[in-house]
Amino acid sequence: DGAVLMLMDDVVFRKVLPEQIQMAIAAQSADDQKLYDVAWEVFAADEEESDPKDERWLVLSEEASILSSFQAELGDGHTFAKASEAPLDSLSQFTKVVSLIPMDDKLTPEDVLDSTLRLLQALAKSKEGGAPSLWLLTTTTQPVSLGDMKGEPAPMHAGVWGLAKAFRNEHPDMEAVCLDLNPSVTSAPAIIHQVRTVSRQPSTSFEQEVAIREKEGAMQLYAPRLVDCTDKVQVKDPASFVEEATYVISGGVGALGLVFAEW
After folding, report:
1. Number of domains in the chain
2. Residue 84: inside a domain, yes or no?
3. SUPFAM superfamilies from the entry (predicted)?
């Protein structure tokens, strides 16, 4: 849309040979050779509740029954609309935009990503007028623990998490919260309660990627963390190969593929 993405001064470009890249990789420190994985850790939100009178929500869903249940719970002081009919030109009048993404296949991943992209673009344009916080609600799209998604539908709409992450990188001053609900959290009162609970985080350490899971009869909040998993993937026994055999490595001609081929 013509927005400036980057300004650079005194930039110098020069050709880099493949040999130079390999030398730079070889010169990296041991810390750079570590491998990391994502682990979900429990965290707690503030127990003090905010005044709902100060809230003005825009709730988006393609199902009329869901919109009706939210309207019955929140009241007439809020706006409820289908995602395809959202008032994208007047988002600044709301404090929260809550997009309820279905866990089934009634909408294709492409349709969900398209509507979410248009919502993010409208949110970015409303920044000067005081943009609301965006809440993208999914259900069981994140593997918080082993076996977490067993028996659940395929996470068809997990891609919105990546889209929101890209948005936050481009607009670090704006909130685009991804909240992955427990499959038992389906009613409007329960969802509203969880959104308000996650909202009560300290502004200095506000988590924008949160999963809610039931543990020991209580709902707990989880946030993703990078953890060192180098020791877990170290091969204790050397790999064995048959000298007369032929091994084909298909694909992966980039950095990771070359490392694997060398191994």
Report:
1. 1
2. yes
3. NAD(P)-binding Rossmann-fold domains (SSF51735)
